[in-house]
């Protein structure tokens, strides 16, 4: 007979790989060994997966049949510490008074990996890889190999000594969400990653907690969104770090930058160092709010992008133009990259949050020759504590009557935007392919065909010149002029994509980067909504205090406000950009055909004197 277990409580699965349990249900176990407080087995409905070990009681019967093979049999036996026997979790009402008192007096021992899984959570931004290759080498005097950013996970557990004494700077505010979900209030001392059975620990309502995601590599976990929603973020927020969301005509939006500015990118120049042994391209940046020019290499742009992508999990940081291993000093490539960086800079300056970020301002204003100031600003950005879960502490949302969000409406809006981004991404890919193919035909096919027509007219003119009659000379000249006109029209076709189609494709490339960002942003918001639904279910079942569930919902509202504000900003900037670009495209098309018409009219007038 296979090893079996009986469910002591109901359990509803929330994540892939989990299965739901019903009280008194008998399950078949795949293995007696638990995986960080979870067992694997098959329920009465035939579903196979993981469930909390503390929710079941193993039925110790002689096993005459071999156990089904465990999917997680390759987990090292020493990697996880077993939890206490599930019987100890029996509600006090079901135990004899003496046993209940003993269980309450003797708390369960915490396993060594009490904070969760035995591996550390990866910092947010795992999809972003630091630049490699000759285009991005950190080998000049601006590099400081010792400036490595602290892990986001290490920031929430260490604070200055003056915090305990109540000290601090006058522009800094101590914000914490630890009060309701810290380890001390989890009931029975359970780690956050272990769902606690109803009835274990303290009172009947304070015993249940919202479970952690089983997938510790999801964007919701890596971004710090889960830790924030569960109330585990704590830190000091300076006045300058606050990000305000306000209610606008179209809903939540980021508070506008009170001092808007723009920044031009001009004069890419080839420079050398190490006595000419290494070459690179430097771009001149001139911010309008300082008027002081600075020079930056592509690797400096890339460093900034990496810092911003890690710091702002619910903001779409525009992608940089692609790198290129060869041909980096060719004129066409340099020109194309400068245009891409100009689009990138425009979106950075137009974003109310990104434009005011300290790292971005340091990038724009630090003098190119001041190596010490650059290193200090770089080190400060890499050791920023307001990342991960702490980042969400910096977001200030509207309060008061009419400022609350309806979660169902938020979910509907986010789902609609998700469908929109998918359709826009497909359309952008199609348009980019069509425009690229059309440009190729203009540069090669159309030019060749028009010049072939011109060459044919030229041959006809040369044939007519064999006739030495004076009255035919003007006709020969007119046909020769027509041949030259078609040659010129072919050149116009070859040059035209630079004027109209290339700018459209540059814009599409920028927006494809934005569209690639939003699935992660939406995932963070969806994860927060899932935690709210779970907490509401616990309240309805009498397993969680209403105050705890309200705290989770308030923190979910902060993420929802920020997500909707970012969606609103995306739509605003999209309308602005595509309106401007389509106007430019049509204007260039009109100018092009006017040039073609002018060439044909000039050729036509040559026949008036024949």
Automatic annotation (TrEMBL):
Gene Ontology biological-process annotations: cleavage furrow formation; endocytosis; endosomal transport; mitotic cell cycle; plasma membrane tubulation; protein transport
Recorded superkingdom: Eukaryota
Database matches in SUPFAM superfamilies: PX domain (SSF64268), SH3-domain (SSF50044)
Cellular compartment(s): Cytoplasmic vesicle membrane
Binding-site positions, a 1,2-diacyl-sn-glycero-3-phospho-(1D-myo-inositol-4,5-bisphosphate): 297, 299, 337
One protein family per Pfam: SH3_9
PROSITE patterns: PX, SH3
Principal location: membrane
Similarity comment: family membership: Belongs to the sorting nexin family.
Name of the protein described by the UniProt record: SNX18 protein
Encoding gene (name): Snx18
């Amino acid at each position: 007979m296979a090893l079996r277990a009986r469910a002591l409580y109901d359990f509803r699965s929330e994540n892939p790989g989990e299965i739901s349990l019903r009280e008194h249900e008998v399950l078949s176990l795949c293995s007696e060994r638990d995986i960080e407080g979870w067992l694997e087995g098959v329920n009465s409905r035939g579903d196979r997966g993981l469930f909390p070990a503390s929710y079941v009681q193993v039925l110790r019967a002689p096993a005459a049949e071999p156990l089904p093979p465990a999917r997680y049999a390759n987990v090292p036996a020493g990697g996880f510490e077993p939890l206490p026997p599930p019987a100890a979790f029996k509600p006090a009402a079901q135990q004899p008074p003496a046993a209940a008192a003993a269980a309450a007096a003797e708390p369960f021992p915490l396993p060594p990996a009490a904070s969760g899984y035995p591996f550390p959570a990866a910092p947010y931004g795992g999809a972003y890889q630091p630049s490699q290759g000759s285009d991005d080498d950190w080998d000049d005097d601006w590099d400081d190999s010792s400036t490595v950013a602290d892990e986001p996970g290490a920031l929430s557990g260490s604070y200055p000594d003056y915090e305990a004494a109540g000290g601090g700077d006058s522009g800094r505010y101590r914000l914490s969400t630890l009060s309701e979900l810290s380890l001390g209030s989890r009931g029975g001392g359970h780690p956050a990653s272990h769902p606690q059975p109803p009835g274990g620990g303290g009172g009947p309502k304070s015993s249940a907690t919202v479970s952690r995601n089983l997938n510790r590599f999801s964007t919701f976990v890596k971004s710090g969104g889960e830790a924030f929603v569960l109330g585990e973020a704590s830190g000091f927020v300076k006045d300058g770090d606050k990000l305000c969301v306000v209610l606008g005509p179209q809903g939540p939006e980021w508070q506008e930058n009170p001092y808007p500015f723009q920044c031009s990118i001009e004069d890419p120049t080839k420079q050398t160092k190490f006595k000419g042994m290494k070459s690179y391209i430097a771009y001149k940046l001139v911010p309008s709010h300082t008027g002081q020019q600075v020079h930056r290499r592509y690797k400096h742009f890339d460093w900034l992008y990496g810092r911003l992508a890690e710091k702002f999990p619910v903001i779409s940081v525009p992608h940089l133009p692609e790198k290129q291993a060869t041909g980096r000093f060719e004129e066409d490539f340099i020109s194309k990259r400068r245009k891409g960086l100009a689009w990138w800079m425009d979106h950075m300056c137009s974003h109310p949050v990104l434009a005011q970020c300290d790292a971005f301002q340091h990038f724009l204003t630090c003098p190119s020759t001041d190596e010490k100031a650059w290193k200090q600003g770089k080190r400060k950005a890499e050791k920023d504590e307001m990342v991960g879960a702490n980042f969400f502490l910096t977001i200030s949302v509207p309060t008061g009557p009419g400022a609350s969000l309806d979660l169902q409406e938020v979910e509907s809006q986010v789902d609609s935007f998700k469908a929109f981004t998918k359709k826009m991404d497909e359309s952008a890919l199609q348009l980019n392919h069509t425009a690229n193919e059309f440009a190729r035909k203009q540069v090669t096919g159309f030019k060749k065909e028009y010049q072939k027509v011109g060459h044919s007219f030229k041959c006809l003119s040369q044939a007519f010149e064999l006739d030495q009659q004076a009255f035919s000379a003007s006709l020969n000249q007119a046909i020769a002029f027509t041949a030259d006109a078609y040659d010129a029209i072919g050149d116009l076709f070859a040059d035209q994509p630079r004027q109209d189609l290339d700018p459209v494709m540059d814009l599409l490339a920028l927006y494809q980067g934005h569209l690639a960002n939003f699935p992660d942003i939406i995932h963070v918001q969806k994860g927060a909504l899932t935690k709210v639904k779970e907490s509401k279910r616990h309240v309805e079942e009498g397993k969680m205090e209403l105050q705890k569930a309200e705290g989770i919902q308030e923190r979910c509202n902060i993420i929802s406000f920020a997500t909707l504000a970012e969606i609103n900003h995306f739509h605003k900037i999209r309308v602005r950009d595509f309106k401007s670009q389509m106007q430019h495209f049509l204007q260039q098309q009109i100018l092009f055909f006017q040039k073609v018409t002018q060439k044909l009219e000039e050729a036509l007038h040559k026949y008036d004197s024949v």
